[in-house]
Amino acid sequence: MLRRLYILLVVVLLPMMAVAEGVLVGATDTEAYMPLLKDRRVALLVNHTAMYSAEEHIVDMLHREGVNIVGIFAPEHGFRGAVEAGYDVKDDVDAKTGIPILSLYNGNTKRPSDSAMRSFDVLVVDMQDVGLRFYTYYISMLRMIDACADSAREVIILDRPNPNGHYVDGPILDMRYKSGVGHIPVPVVHGLTMGEIALMAMGEGWTKRADVTVVKCRNYDHQTHYILPVAPSPNLTTQHSIYLYPSLCLFEGTVVSVGRGTDAPFEIYGHPAMEAREFSFTPCSVAAASEPPFMDERCYGEDLRDKPVEEIWREGVNLDYVIDAYRDLDMGDAFFKPMFEKLIGVGWVREMIKQGCTAREISERWAEDVEGYKVLRRKYLIYNE
């Protein structure tokens, strides 16, 4: 199980799937960014996904090349990617290089102190996102762009493909529900890389305008189905779970378990009271979920591990799973937690579910907004659709 927590296992590869061949991430284009780092104090906003090659992390490569790295800023899950979702990340020192690590996810720090900002000249950003509004890496980046704008510091984003970048879906965030899992008014699945979402946030005035350079991926467009070489976070351990995540993460705003504490988080769901289901699982304490919901209790529900990838893509943000569990448990409003609105981004989805609406009826309500967003999105694309 521990191997699943840190290495992305490709468990579903359909014959018709257009898997990327020859995609080169921004970190590999050293000719584009190494000259910008020469004789400068460099800080990095990176995590475990910032691999320069299959064997070497970007920090280790830059350190080996003599770049003056003065600090590493750590997002959710920490610099090495081992901290549980929502848990504080502590300041530390990288054991391998001796570089200080400053947390951006400790419950207090939204941006570094003025003294920390004065300690560097240029910030390098390299993190593997999964293309969802409630995935927090882009939020850490936008907050750092704000801070760099205020401090006249340059930003270099080493871009990476978006594994969910081939479509756009879900309600656009009502800013009344802005939170640590939703920062800007985009759909649940926004269809942008980290570089593109930075350009959109600055262009639309959602964040301050800094001096930002995006080092593009090569051999990539938004129809490229890129297989992630490293798990982006401790509970997204397969490519299949990344594709289901836009729909199943909504269970985090309900009483239903999404499989934390098992070997299939975000590929299964269930609850102890859904006893009529044939499939069951028992969450237990593991490295990625020390105290998962319903720990050591048998949950009954659904196993989606065999669901075809192309079917998941065709469905997009699919509320059928949440509606299925809501009707089964028959708990009314007690089914939901306040986190549900923060994840889905609007208040009316809960009400439509309670009124008995179907997933299609609910998605039809956000469809027009998504079409308008797609027009806006095209202004900021740096890769072909």
Task: Please outline the helices and strands.
Layout: H1 2-6, H2 30-37, E1 41-46, H3 58-64, E2 68-74, E3 92-93, E4 100-103, H4 114-118, E5 122-126, H5 137-151, E6 154-158, H6 194-203, E7 211-215, H7 239-248, E8 268-271, E9 279-281, E10 299-303, H8 309-315, H9 320-329, H10 339-344, H11 348-354, H12 359-378
Parallel strand pairs: 1-2, 1-5, 2-4, 5-6, 6-7
Antiparallel strand pairs: 3-4, 8-10, 9-10
Helix pairs in contact: 5-6
Descriptive report:
The chain is an alpha/beta fold and 385 residues long. It has two domains: 196 residues, 3-Layer(aba) Sandwich (Rossmann fold); 116 residues, no CATH class. It is 29% helix and 12% strand. It is built from twelve helices and ten strands. The strands form two sheets. The protein has a seven-stranded mixed sheet with strand order 3-4-2-1-5-6-7, with helices on both faces. A hairpin with a 6-residue loop joins β3 and β4. α5 packs across α6. The chain is globular. The two termini are 37 Å apart. The relative contact order is 0.15. The N terminus is likely disordered.
